[in-house]
Amino acid sequence: MWWRVTSLSQLVSSSKPSLLNQMRAAYGLKLWQAFSTEDFKRAEGGLCHPGRTPVTTFVLGGPGSGKGTQCTKIVETFGFTHLSAGDLLRKEISSNTENGAMILNTIKEGKIVPSEVTVKLILKAIESSENDRFLIDGFPRSEENRVAYERVVGTEPDFVLFFDCPEEEMVKRVLNRNQGRIDDNIDTVKERLRVFTALNLPVIKYYSGKGKLYKIDAIGTEDEIFERVLPVFAALRPKTCNNILQKQAINEK
Ligand SMILES: Nc1ncnc2c1ncn2[C@@H]1O[C@H](COP(=O)(O)OP(=O)(O)OP(=O)(O)O)[C@@H](O)[C@H]1O
Ligand SMILES: O=c1ccn([C@@H]2O[C@H](COP(=O)(O)O)[C@@H](O)[C@H]2O)c(=O)[nH]1
Ligand SMILES: [Mg+2]
């Protein structure tokens, strides 16, 4: 069985010195500005300012499994910044950027946008944030995405949540979502499920093998599911919840 709940002692972030960090220090560049498409292929790792070691969590699961819903709750309770790869891509469409039309077609078809586009958007969002803990929702979608992220960023996620939901329930949720999403229709959902099984499950399996995966049963009410998520983040409390603890201490005085 390849599902394995990781030991809590592994929730420690790591950083690597990198060529790009040195370049950025020298030229005042943000990492996402520092590579062109060509550079992207050979970029070395390195995400943040020297000494900045953000906690990153990938949040995975099929379409409609409840990733976004649970991320909202995690943000409220544990002060993470929620970066939904899908939302970042949809913003490109609504802002009419150079990749907007390509992204729109890819999402309509339920396929995966090229890694260089998505990784760049994620890096830009991380680097624009003051926070040091991030939920990266709906990414990586494929092994190719994963390898591209790790090559550019230079670190792996600290841990990975996987919302495990039966297909029938996912289809029901997506078709009832009512948020006007172009991909919330039965044909696109079928393709998204196919892509999830073919390309995303191998990523989930990879992190399971590394002992980084937390598999969460995604059936139940939103609150019941959040109860299952809580223990994963409770282990991070001393490191990641200083603000919350400080606020509590002030209020208790
Ligand atoms: N536990 C739940 N029970 C029933 N409905 C839920 C539950 N959690 C979320 N939903 C609803 O299901 C729909 C999909 O949820 P959500 O958008 O969080 O999924 P997602 O995994 O982010 O999907 P996608 O990958 O398509 O973005 C939403 O309308 C949400 O309100
Ligand atoms: O890393 C990513 C994330 C998303 N996409 C595309 O966007 C849609 C919608 O994503 P959600 O996470 O469900 O909001 C997805 O089906 C892909 O087409 C992507 O290509 N890469
Ligand atoms: Mg979502």
UniProtKB/TrEMBL annotation:
<dbReference type="GO" id="GO:0006221">
    <property type="term" value="P:pyrimidine nucleotide biosynthetic process"/>
</dbReference>
<dbReference type="GO" id="GO:0009123">
    <property type="term" value="P:nucleoside monophosphate metabolic process"/>
</dbReference>
<comment type="function">
    <text>Catalyzes the phosphorylation of pyrimidine nucleoside monophosphates at the expense of ATP. Plays an important role in de novo pyrimidine nucleotide biosynthesis. Has preference for UMP and CMP as phosphate acceptors.</text>
</comment>
<keyword id="KW-0808">Transferase</keyword>
<feature type="binding site">
    <location>
        <begin position="111"/>
        <end position="113"/>
    </location>
    <ligand>
        <name>a ribonucleoside 5'-phosphate</name>
    </ligand>
</feature>
<feature type="binding site">
    <location>
        <position position="90"/>
    </location>
    <ligand>
        <name>a ribonucleoside 5'-phosphate</name>
    </ligand>
</feature>
<dbReference type="InterPro" id="IPR000850">
    <property type="entry name" value="Adenylat/UMP-CMP_kin"/>
</dbReference>
<dbReference type="InterPro" id="IPR027417">
    <property type="entry name" value="P-loop_NTPase"/>
</dbReference>
<feature type="binding site">
    <location>
        <begin position="138"/>
        <end position="141"/>
    </location>
    <ligand>
        <name>a ribonucleoside 5'-phosphate</name>
    </ligand>
</feature>
<feature type="binding site">
    <location>
        <position position="145"/>
    </location>
    <ligand>
        <name>CMP</name>
    </ligand>
</feature>
<keyword id="KW-0963">Cytoplasm</keyword>
<dbReference type="GO" id="GO:0016301">
    <property type="term" value="F:kinase activity"/>
</dbReference>
<keyword id="KW-0665">Pyrimidine biosynthesis</keyword>
<feature type="binding site">
    <location>
        <position position="181"/>
    </location>
    <ligand>
        <name>a ribonucleoside 5'-phosphate</name>
    </ligand>
</feature>
<dbReference type="GO" id="GO:0005524">
    <property type="term" value="F:ATP binding"/>
</dbReference>
<dbReference type="GO" id="GO:0005634">
    <property type="term" value="C:nucleus"/>
</dbReference>
<comment type="subunit">
    <text>Monomer.</text>
</comment>
<dbReference type="GO" id="GO:0005737">
    <property type="term" value="C:cytoplasm"/>
</dbReference>
<feature type="binding site">
    <location>
        <position position="177"/>
    </location>
    <ligand>
        <name>ATP</name>
    </ligand>
</feature>
<feature type="binding site">
    <location>
        <position position="220"/>
    </location>
    <ligand>
        <name>ATP</name>
    </ligand>
</feature>
<keyword id="KW-0539">Nucleus</keyword>
<comment type="similarity">
    <text>Belongs to the adenylate kinase family. UMP-CMP kinase subfamily.</text>
</comment>
<feature type="binding site">
    <location>
        <position position="192"/>
    </location>
    <ligand>
        <name>a ribonucleoside 5'-phosphate</name>
    </ligand>
</feature>
<feature type="binding site">
    <location>
        <begin position="64"/>
        <end position="69"/>
    </location>
    <ligand>
        <name>ATP</name>
    </ligand>
</feature>
<dbReference type="InterPro" id="IPR033690">
    <property type="entry name" value="Adenylat_kinase_CS"/>
</dbReference>
<keyword id="KW-0418">Kinase</keyword>
<dbReference type="Pfam" id="PF00406">
    <property type="entry name" value="ADK"/>
</dbReference>
<dbReference type="InterPro" id="IPR006266">
    <property type="entry name" value="UMP_CMP_kinase"/>
</dbReference>
<keyword id="KW-0547">Nucleotide-binding</keyword>
<protein>
    <recommendedName>
        <fullName>UMP-CMP kinase</fullName>
        <ecNumber>2.7.4.14</ecNumber>
    </recommendedName>
</protein>
<keyword id="KW-0067">ATP-binding</keyword>
